[in-house]
Amino acid sequence: MKISDLGGETALIKLIRDKYGVTGAGGLALGIGDDAALIRSGDGFIAVTADLLVENTHFRMDINEPYLLGWKSAAVNISDIAAMGGIPTYSFVSIGLPDVEVAVVEAIYEGMRDVSAKYGSVIAGGDTVASGVGIVINVTQLGAVEPGKAARRNGAKASDVILVTNTIGDSRAGLELLLKLGLDEARRVSPNCVQSHLKPEPKVNEARAAVETGKVHSMMDLSDGLAADLGKLCEASGVGARVIADALPISRDTHIAAARLDMDAVCLAAGGGEDYELLLTCDPGDVGVIAQAMGETESSIRVIGEIVEGDRVTLVLPNGEEGPIGGSWEHF
Asked: Were 278 and a residue from 162, 165, 217, 270 both cysteine, which residue would form a disulfide, CB within 3.0 to 4.6 Å?
């Protein structure tokens, strides 16, 4: 049986977690299955996450730039620490490289250094190796989480409302423009969508503001897209969800890009990936508290649906029809 027959990446992770993962061993408080692992350290936790980016799977250099590649490689890991309610601290970078110009390598590391510094982290080590399959970057990111501040996926409750920060779909719109038009023309059509895809901003301050209210029941970042990530949150919590299409926060830029691409903006928002916004749930009465805290970070937050009993994750269309929300990014 191949991975695709098993059910793809999500099923593979579940197999690895169930057969080989351990939680509760020594200081391990949380193992495989969330945005990061949590290791007890004093009264709090060390959060640890890792992400691997492979050329021609996650990125193409003809529609990217070395500095932006470095930025994104670190940013997506910092985003995982943020999703746990953590503060980024140290990263370890392993990189596989063809015999490229040294200036390319320097630009990659400059991007990683700059986004790390912006959010309080530093590159503390790693490894380098020759690669015959293009550029390969693996970042292991550490963070600190204080007692009572750790956010997880498994706390959503029926009757919770579902919230997302800012707008979603911008990154997927940017990717589709890049694939169709190339870097220069895509930037002319929608510089904001292209920027969202190539240079994401992890929501560290927003996540900290949310968890400090004490009102968040569950939280994760939107890396694989709303449809896929909400499904993961619901599975972890043993609940279902209803998302209202008209409530999705979709930017004017994404609507313009969708028209240029002859695509549906709601599909870009629900099925796109790599927005690195926050997805969270809370009691309906606590939305105002979280929104006020979020406003102090200059980000917005919007209710897009509700958590329900059962295990279905559905999308309610403007005409009232309700059906499965669909899928998002899948490796296999």
From this structure: 165
Q: How many CA atoms lie within 13 A of 205 on its CB side?
A: 12
Is the pLDDT higher at 221 or at 327? 221
107 and 74 belong to one structural domain: yes
Closest by Cα among 207, 202, 208, 205 to 112 = 202
Q: What are phi and psi of 53, to 5 degrees?
A: -115, 130
Instruction: Look at residue 76 and tell me whether its pLDDT is greater than 80.
Output: yes
Sequence letter at residue 241: A
Q: Are residues 187 and 315 in the same domain?
A: yes
Ramachandran assignment for 165, one of left (phi > 0), alpha (psi -120 to 50 degrees), beta (any other): beta
Strand 240-244 vs strand 313-316: parallel, antiparallel, or unpaired? parallel
Question: Which of 238, 231, 244, 230 lies closest to 310, judged by CA?
Answer: 238
CA 293 to chain centre: 21
CATH of residue 169's domain is: 3.90.650.10
Is residue 273 domain-shared with residue 307, that is, in the same domain? yes
Side-by-side strand order, sheet with 313-316: 218-221, 278-282, 161-165, 301-308, 240-244, 313-316, 322-324
| Parent domain of 213 | 161-324
**Three-class secondary structure of residue 9 per DSSP:** helix
- State the pLDDT confidence band at 10, using cuts at 50, 70 and 90: confident
Q: Coil, strand, or helix at residue 269?
A: helix
Q: What is the pLDDT of residue 330?
A: 60
Structure tokens at 105: 């390598």
pTM for the structure as a whole: 0.95
Q: Please choose, from the candidates 265, 277, 275, 273, the residue with its C-alpha nearest in 3D space to the C-alpha of residue 330.
A: 273
